[in-house]
Amino acid sequence: MPTNILMPALSPTMEKGNLAKWLKKEGDKVKSGDVIAEIETDKATMEYEAVDEGTLAKIVVPEGTQDVPVNSLIAVLAGDGEDVKAAAASAAAKPAAVPPPKAAASAAAKPGSAPKAAEAAKPEPAKASAPSQAAPPPKPAAPSAPQPVAGGGSNRVFSSPLARRLAKEAGIDLARVQGSGPHGRVIARDIDAAKSGKGLRAPGAAPAAGGAAPAIAPSMSDQQVRALYEEGAYDFVPHDGMRRTIAQRLTASTQTIPHFYETVDCDIGKLMAAREEINAAAPKDKDGKPAYKLSVNDFVIKALALALQQIPNANVSWTDSGMLKHKHSDVSVAVALPAGLITPIIRNAEAKSLSAISNEMKELAGRARAGKLKPHEYQGGTTSVSNLGMYGIKDFTAVINPPQSTILAVGTGEERAVVRDGKLAISTIMSVTLSCDHRAVDGALGAELISAFKRLIENPVMMVV
Amino acid sequence: MADTGFDVIIIGSGPGGYVAAIRAAQLGFKTAIVERDFLGGICLNWGCIPTKALLRSAEIFHYMQHAKDYGLKADNIGYDGAAVVKRSRAVSKRLNDGVGFLMKKNKVSVIWGEAVIDAPGKITVKPSQAEAPKGALEPGAYQAKHIIIATGARPRVLPGIEPDRKLVWTYFEAMVPSAIPKSLLVIGSGAIGIEFASFFRTLGAEVTIVEVLPQILPIEDHEIQAFARKSFEKQGIKILTSAKVTKLNKKADSVTVTVEESGKTQTITAERVVSAVGVVGNIETLGLEKLGVKTDRGTIVIDGLCRTNVPGIYAIGDVAGPPMLAHKAEHEGVICVEAIKGLNPHPMNRQWIPGCTYCTPQIASVGLTEQAAKEKKLEIRVGRFPFVGNGKAIALGEDQGLVKVIFDKKTGQLLGAHMVGAEVTELIQGYVVAMNLETTEEELIHTVFPHPTLSEMMKEAVLDAYGRVLNM
Predict the structure, then answer these.
(1) What CATH number did the domain enclosing A63 receive?
(2) Could you tell me if residue A23 is inside a domain?
(3) Which residues of A touch B410 (CB under 8 A)?
(4) Which structural domain, as residue segments, surrounds residue A282?
(5) pLDDT value of residue A3
(6) Do A165 and B443 touch (CB under 8 A)?
(7) Where are the CATH 3.50.50.60 domain residues in chain B?
(8) A196 with A317, same domain?
(9) CB neighbours of residue A318 within 10 Å
């Protein structure tokens, strides 16, 4: 029987590709493993190796054809001893394999994508990528349906052997399938349902996104990544909980939150002067230790807190059903740790004096580095500050810490040449960039907020009133 | 005046009904069960259990006759037909008492009599002729939020072959013969017919089976049917298939039966006739028509959670449709009660209910037959392993049999398993567990089966399906 060669799925999400080049001609002998064609996807050009042996009887899709659906017939191979002409004719007689129906073609949920050739060419998508996706979300939104159970420490998705095999064949990421078996075990019928898009969750943080989030491409599997580097050329360090949480939350953030960024330069000359005066005037205790020592960051916290009070519509959290308009400015401050970072919160920062903020920050940061923060001290918050000024970073953008809607990335304060009153002058300038969740904060609103911040930080006396 | 209000009332105390009652009691429901004849129903009293007792006697008799094969001596071998029956009745009595004990232990009230459902939530129990067990509640009016019908089934009667209980038997009479007849004609070759044929043949009767379909054991895999038939014929059982009984001519102590077999007519004279042409649901006396409960071909129509179309009325077991098997009834009983409690049980997958026939050789199966898989246009892989390749089977002196498995070629799903041979009724459950856990061939091949056992054949059959059989 002639073998149909079908358009391969070179990645789990690939739906169509370009047939860049045929490396064999009709009539050429083909051995298993021979590269017969080059297939171009949006990411790369891949070589397509033959799985079966025989003679290339007919090329159905000529080279240079764009957007060939996965699984459609591209050529016919006549087996050894088979009549090449008859095999070629069989291709003409048979309609090309129908591409998957549009409705079902959403990302990874691809029905029947497992012809032999494609199977061999694609590097084990579903099974291998499952573990990396299954990290339990830190704060699940109390979903009513049972979740696939993540076993102690590992990220195992409980599933039946048949379900695993069906998922692999269909290119479905098991971690995304809602299990209906005992204790949320994924069973065969769940995969059947998932093929038509039912019960499929977005990767990672889906429960928070209400389950209806658009499907997103799974990342590369562990094996795929490791295969790119020589054995021994790296040390392997297993993830700890903090690393997983950072990865999971920030991946969810960038995948589900439409970010935009607004940058302003702030002249902090007055602030620097005020800071020096205030610190110099700090009362000292009997050991000569000052009662407070304000940092630039303390001013940033206070200014952002006050700015949010002036522009209350930007002090919000997005939820599917409505907006949470926060009354207080609870400012999360990113604190770098040797193996990650954590964001302790200065609550009601708008109402606290600079010295109170400064002392509280020192105390929280100390306990953060010692790993002694309690969950309520770093969970929540209505906005965040990430300051990399001490590293000399001029300007950068930060990823929003959900469910907050804004984060302020603070660069270094440095002397820069500025034009003032038509003349070149030297000022101490600090660039700050506000990241906004566009679902909750529009461009103009973000601009109002960052302008309010700029007014305050450039005129620190206004923070006193 | 006794309390007449319950959460759950179950009508019928067969394996479906009494298990449902226990589960209901476990879940905290105030539960009653209505029975008109005998606790435990047909299964315990006139079905599964007493026939197994009879067949065990026959089996041991058979071994005694073949003692020489095992290097043993046994002279003057014989049987006492009355004692064989007595033992079978004693086994039933013991289990019947056991059900009474279980009802008491679980605080399930037993109401003695025949129930009619007057309206959802209301039943009237009329007196029955059977003697009530001690402590049973009197007939009268009772109320329950949930009424579960578990009234079972009775032998089907074909016109012209009405059992007279003397010459023409149903399973009731066949189970308590006053003497073992010299000759017997069995109409129907389902599990019941085949088991009686096997029993009476082993005790020396000339047995003829008449089956209207082209092959005996109609629901089994073709290969198993053919294997079993050959084996029965070797034992001296005469088998007529595609054959129909057209006339019974009763004499004083025998019946002359006219059988039409592919156009040809013949007459067979036998001392007794057993009519085993299936069973029909007991739906007539419950008042279902008035309530508007939907029925179809003699059984009550239910959904996956055993609910009828009338809220508050449920049905389980034989009365709720095929397969009419005790274990199906039991499981439906549990599902039904758990659904009432709101526990979200999974509906039963009827594909995965095993079936067992306790003839010699035994037959056991689950899932799709090869012919059914092909009708569904499934691409399959079939594996087989014969008893002659198994060490334990040879040691037992039971080297005739076959294990056959059917896999989905693409997914490796175990679609069906079919066995004929010694003890296969005890083996099939291994495959049933595998199916319910959705294993593929890989896990079965990876599982260690103990040696030496008959179960090793189950693994070998799987290996055979994948071209890897070892001991053949």
Answers:
(1) 2.40.50.100
(2) yes
(3) 169
(4) 257-463
(5) 81
(6) no
(7) 5-154+280-350, 168-277
(8) no
(9) 18
Please indicate, yes or no, whether residues A222 and A262 belong to a single structural domain of this protein: no
**Has residue A31 been placed in a domain?**
yes
- Chain B hits for A160, CB-CB cut-off 8 Å, are 437-439
- E-strand spans in A23-129? 29-30, 35-40, 45-49, 54-59, 65-69, 73-78
- Sort strands A331-333 and A406-420 into parallel, antiparallel or unpaired: unpaired
CA dist., res. A396 & res. B420, Å (int): 75
H or E element: which one contains A356? helix A354-369
**pTM, whole model, 2 decimals?**
0.60
Q: Between chain A and chain B, how many beta carbons pairs sit less than 8 Å apart?
A: 25
Residue of B nearest to A180 (CA): B346
Q: Show the CA angle centred on residue A118, arms to residues A255 and A134, nearest 5°.
A: 35
User: Active-site positions of B?
Assistant: 451
For B361-465, which CATH superfamily applies? Answer: FAD/NAD-linked reductase, C-terminal dimerisation domain (3.30.390.30)
The tens digit of pLDDT for each residue in A30-69 reads 888 788 888 877 666 777 888 778 888 888 888 888 888 8
Q: Which CATH superfamily is domain B5-154+280-350 in?
A: FAD/NAD(P)-binding domain (3.50.50.60)
Instruction: Give the separation between CA A268 and CA A460, rounded to whole angstroms.
Output: 9
Q: Do A60 and A169 reside in the same domain of the chain?
A: no
Which region among A171-185, A344-358, B150-164, B359-373 has the lowest average model confidence (pLDDT)? A171-185
Give the pLDDT of residue A286: 86
- What are the residues facing B417 on neighbouring strands? B366, B405
What mean pLDDT is reported for chain A?
A: 80
Best of A113, A158, A160 to disrupt the B interface (most B CBs within 10 Å) is A160
pLDDT digits (tens, 9 = 90+) for A114-142: 344 444 444 434 443 333 443 343 333 33
**Is A335 in contact with A369 (CB distance < 8 Å)?**
yes
* Distance in Å, alpha carbon of B413 to nearest chain A alpha carbon: 6
Q: Do A234 and A378 lie in a common domain? A: no
Which of the two residues, B3 and A241, has the higher pLDDT score?
A: B3
pLDDT single digits (tens) B356-369: 999 999 999 999 99
Q: Which CATH class is domain B168-277?
A: alpha beta
CB-based contact A161 B442, cutoff 8 Å: yes
Contact B438 A169 (CB under 8 A): no
Whether residue A99 is contained in a domain is answered as: yes
pLDDT value of position B58: 97
Closest-CA distance, A79 to chain B, in angstroms, reads: 22
Taking CA–CA distances from B407, the nearest residue in chain A reads A162
How much is the pLDDT for A236? 84
| One domain, residues A312 and A191 | no
Q: Which residues of B touch A165 (CB under 8 A)?
A: 411-412, 440
Residue A166 with chain B: CB contacts under 8 Å: 411
Q: What is the CATH number of the domain that holds A283?
A: 3.30.559.10
Query: Which ipTM did the prediction report?
Result: 0.75
* Alpha carbons A453 and A437: distance in angstroms, whole number: 18
Chain A: residue whose CA lies nearest to B343? A182
Q: What's the average model confidence in pLDDT over A292-320?
A: 95
List chain A residues with CB under 8 Å of B440: 161-162, 165
Residue B127: HSE in the Cβ half-sphere, 13 Å Cα cutoff: 2
In a domain, A147, yes or no: yes
Distances (CA, A) of A201 to A12, A175, A206, A214, A401: 16, 8, 6, 8, 21
What residues of chain B score a pLDDT lower than 50?
A: none
Tokens of B350: 């009827």
Contacts 24+ apart (CB under 8 A), B444-449: B444/B414
**What percent of chain A has pLDDT above 90?**
39
Query: Which residues of chain A have a Cβ shorter than 8 Å from any chain B Cβ?
Result: 160-163, 165-166, 169, 187-188
Q: What percent of chain A has pLDDT over 70?
A: 79
Q: Please determine, for residue A91, whether its predicted confidence score (pLDDT) is greater than 60.
A: no
Report pLDDT for A11: 67
Active-site annotation holder among A183, A239, A326, A438? A438
